[in-house]
From TrEMBL:
It holds the Pfam family F-box. Residues 186-405 form the F-box/LRR-repeat protein 15/At3g58940/PEG3-like LRR domain. InterPro entries: F-box-like_dom_sf (IPR036047), F-box_dom (IPR001810), F-box_dom-containing (IPR055302), FBD (IPR006566), LRR_dom_sf (IPR032675), LRR_FXL15/At3g58940/PEG3-like (IPR055411). Residues 425-467 form the FBD domain. This is FBD domain-containing protein. It comes from Lolium multiflorum (Italian ryegrass).
Length: 550
């Protein structure tokens, strides 16, 4: 992304502000744009350990709630809803738990409630100094009120809370606090965290002014396992060498950071597994992935000019939701890469093994990713260059098992030659590996149907066709319309269940799916396929006849 003046890169927040102000003379101001962006990037964050008081009742997650008195039974279960005390009940059994368990209980409570535990008994009071503290500015309220404490007061309150606690600080989450004119409180908070073995830190600057530098002490929080930063100038790692030996998850949101500082972090954080960027401008402008530990890299609506996977022996997923100008994606060494996408054929120029991937090229072994299992691609089916890239990409991924294709509306500037799909042969992934095809946003264009026909015809191992639409009724209509129209299906669709006795074993299950593509799914290594959520409540069986000549 070019700076507002039309020449340089956005290296400072002054550049960002000028760029936003010059985007449109009649549009929103820079402050309005930033004020809109910040709540959005905060919404991308992983959920807090304990929900805010105003949201606690809206969540049903057992992992996010803890109560000394609540029961997990429902009101519909009379036996569970009525507590029948056993003989000898009424004693304080909770206080008989071990110190470690009691400290764990306290650490899971909201900040103010955990502090109030000290008044329960001398037994609990003695645990407070050793209890890992969990601080969230969403829990800061005026006494007896639901009204939040203003940001400038909250900064001081957080600083005093962290500094005064005699024990460790397990986690700090700050997303609602302004540090304007509170630089000392900010520096004191970060310095205290470094000394108190913080493991989880989410630290956002509610902007204005934008030019708020992140304290250097954040680089010496040696106990950190997870770090999310938003709307900061990242410290200069040349002057302040990172000491983050336990960091496993790092997210940089709308943060200005130099390329060399990213390189330094990757070199020094030797346990880092997940690296993510969100809504960042030229930070870094070029991301070079050299890491022996990284498992996932996520780029979410940033303006990176190039992503170079140079040496990443453990990298399993490379995910992006890209916007802006065309950029390079170079994969040199990633022997365990299994998940890739969304590759946008209009925005991304793909290089594999030093070879530029072009439509119709002869794919050599060096230009293949044999480890890839899941691939997602955005394509404009009215653009012949993008359409011709699809079969080439399939040849680059010989072991592909799941293919996601998102159809993007486009112009009719180019026309795909008649008979293009019919003239194509098969490839390794279609003959031996592809099991699932997921269609996103299909518009029933002729080229879409021809592509689908090609996959159904050549995909000998294909077992599942999923259609992602916003409403289930649309999915039903789409499936009933699309599958009978394309060969070699017979057009015979059964209701959910086992195919009839005449099945040859090549039948395809057709089912709706929900859009699962989100930032949180992208960074969650436990989510096998972050691009969709299959729905098995309704399934059809499309029976097709086998043509041995295919």
């Amino acid at each position: 992304m070019d700076a507002a003046a039309g020449g340089g890169e956005l290296r400072t927040y002054a550049d960002v502000e000028e760029f936003f102000n010059n985007m449109s003379s009649e549009g929103p101001s820079a402050q309005d744009r930033i004020d809109y962006i910040v709540p959005y990037i905060i919404s991308l964050l992983p959920p807090p350990f304990i929900p805010a008081p105003d949201a606690a009742d809206a969540s049903d997650s057992e992992d996010e709630h803890f109560s000394l008195t609540s029961s997990s039974s429902s009101d519909d279960d009379p036996a569970g809803a009525v507590f029948l005390p056993a003989q000898g009940d009424g004693q304080d059994h909770i206080s008989r738990l071990t110190n470690d368990l009691l400290a764990n209980v306290i650490s899971r409570l909201p900040t103010k409630e955990s502090a109030r535990i000290m008044v329960l008994s001398s037994r609990w009071r003695g645990l407070w100094p050793a209890t890992p503290l969990l601080v969230d500015d969403a829990h800061l309220r005026y006494p007896g009120e639901s009204r939040e404490i203003p940001g400038f007061h909250a900064a001081r309150a957080i600083s005093r809370c962290v500094a005064a606690h005699p024990g460790p600080v397990r986690a700090l989450r700050v997303t609602r606090t302004s540090f304007h004119a509170q630089e000392y409180a900010l520096q004191r908070i970060v310095a205290s965290l470094a000394a108190k073995s913080v493991q989880d830190l989410v630290l956002f600057n509610r902007p204005w002014p934008l030019n708020m530098p992140l304290p250097d002490d954040v680089l010496r929080c040696a106990s950190l396992a997870r770090l999310y930063l938003g709307v900061w100038h990242f410290p200069d790692t040349a002057a302040h060498r990172p000491n983050l030996p336990n960091l496993q998850e790092l997210g940089l949101f709308h943060t200005i950071i130099a390329d060399r500082d990213i390189d330094a972090l990757l070199a020094r954080c030797r346990k880092l597994k997940v690296l993510s960027f969100a809504m960042s401008y030229n930070c870094a402008s070029r991301l070079r992935v050299r890491s022996r530990s990284l498992c996932a890299v996520v780029e979410w609506r940033c303006s990176l000019e190039e992503i170079l996977v140079d040496d990443a022996p453990c990298l399993e997923r490379l995910l992006f939701d890209s916007i802006g100008d065309r950029r390079l994606l170079k994969i040199v060494q990633a022997p365990r890469l299994e998940v890739l996408g969304f590759l946008d054929l209009q925005l991304h120029e793909l290089h594999i093994g030093g070879i530029v991937i072009k439509a119709g090229m002869n794919v050599r072994a060096r230009a293949m990713l044999p480890s890839l299992k899941i691939f997602a691609v955005k394509v404009r089916f009215l653009d012949q260059t993008e359409v011709k890239m699809l079969p080439t990409l399939l040849r680059c991924f010989p072991s592909l098992e799941t293919l996601h294709v998102m159809s993007i509306p486009g112009s009719t500037d180019t026309v795909v030659p008649a008979g293009f799909w019919e003239s194509l042969g098969s490839c390794d992934c279609l003959r031996s590996h592809l099991k699932t095809l997921v269609l996103h946003g299909f518009q029933n264009l002729n080229q879409e149907l021809l592509f689908l026909n090609y996959i159904l015809e050549k995909g000998k191992m294909l077992k599942t066709l999923c259609i992602v639409r916003s409403e289930i009724d649309d999915v039903l209509a789409e499936a009933c319309h699309v599958v009978p129209e394309v060969g070699p299906t017979s057009g015979f669709i059964l209701e959910r269940g086992t195919p009839s006795g005449g099945s040859t074993g090549s039948d395809i299950s057709v089912c709706p799916a929900s859009r699962g593509w989100s930032f949180q799914n992208a960074i969650d290594l436990s989510v096998k396929d972050p691009f969709y959520a299959s729905r098995h409540d309704v399934t059809w069986i499309a029976c097709r006849t086998e043509d041995e000549s295919l």
